[in-house]
Amino acid sequence: MALPFFKKGKDKPPAPASRQAPVSAPASESHPTETLLTMNMGASGIVVEETSGAPQSPVDEAAILYASGQSDMAERLLKDMLGTGDRRAWHMLFDLYCIQRNEKEFEQLALDYAMRFETSPPVWQKMGGNGNPGKPQQAEAASLELPSLLDRKATATLREGIAGTDKKAVVQIDFSRIEMVDETGADECAQILAAARKAKRKLRVSGVDRLIALLQDLTRAMHSRAVHWLLLLELYQTLGQQDNFEDMAVDYAVRFEVSPPSWSDVQAAEVVQAKPAEPVDDALRLTGEITPANDAALQQIGSYAATHQDVLVDLTQVTRVDYGSVSQFISVLMQCLGSGKAITLRGHNALIHELFRVMGIDQLAQLIPHHPD
Questions:
Q1: 39-70: per-residue pLDDT in tens?
Q2: Residue 332 lies in a domain
Q3: If you ran DSSP here, which 8-state letter would residue 298 be given?
Q4: Do 155 and 242 fall within a single domain?
Q5: C-beta separation of 367 from 358 below 8 A
C-alpha cells in the first residue's frame, strides 16, 4: 500500500493565487508543486519515493483552492465544471453554498440538478462557520422542535419561537417527536399556523406526516373533537394540499354541522426530512476550521487515539481543512496507524473529501463523506 505524506520541514501552503488570474489557468501555474513522500509498505520493507502533490484535474484544483482560502475562485471553477456532468463538482458547490449560507444560489442549483440528473437534489442544510464575509448573509433560520406531547406548554414555545424570529427568516418546525395531542395543543397549534400563514411567514416543516397520521386516527374516533379536525385542516392548508383539504372540509361540515374553514391560496410550506438522531457512538466531534493557527483539533485527535483502539472522527461541523494543515493532519494519522489503530473520518463535506482524496488521506483512513455518492 502506498501512503503519501509530506516531508517534514518542507511543507508549505501554496502561495495565494492572483485574484486577476483566470480560473482556467493550468494547475501548475495556479499552485506550486508540493513534494510528497510515498511510503510503500511491502514485504521487502519500507520504500520511500517522492511524488508531486500538484492537482491533476479541475476537481483537484477546486479542492485545493478552497483549502487555500480562495473560495471565490473555487466557486467559479466549480460553476465552470457543472456542464461536464461530474457530480463531484455539483456536490462541492452545494456544500460551498451551505457553508456560505447562500440559500438562494443553493435552491437554483438544486433545480438545475434535478433537471439534469432527474433525481432529487441534496436538501439545504446550514453548516457551521462564518460563511463568506464578502457576501451578504441570509436571515438566520429558527429551528423549533416540538416535544412528544403537543399541549399548551409546547404551543407556547412554538408561538414564542416564531415571534422571536426575523420576519424574513425561514422558520423550521420539526413535528417528528409528537406522539400525543391534547385539545388545547391542537387548538392553539392550528391558530399559530394560521397566523403564520396569513403573515406570509416562510415555513419549513419536517416529520409532518407523523402528525397527520396521528390526527387522522383521532378524527376517525367516535368521539373526535373539532379541534383535531381543524388542526388537520390547517396542516393541509399549510402544506398546500388542496384536494385533501377540500375532501376533509366536506366531512367536517357533515360531522359537526357547521361551515368549514375556507381554502386560501398561499405559499405552501417546504417539507424536508427530519433531522437524523445523533449517533450514539463516542466519536470525536470536531467543529469549525482546521488551520495552522488553530491546530487544537489535531491535538484532540492524538489525545482521543491514546484511549481508543478505533479512531472515529466526526467532521460534520468542520467547514474547511486548510491546505497548510494537511501535512500535520497526515502526521497525526500516521502516528495512529503506527500504533495499530483503525481510522475512520466521517461526515465531512464534499470540498474536504476531494482534498483528502487528492492528498492521499483516503489511503490512510476510511472516508465516509456527507455525500456518499
A1: 444 444 334 344 445 557 999 999 999 999 99
A2: yes
A3: H
A4: yes
A5: no
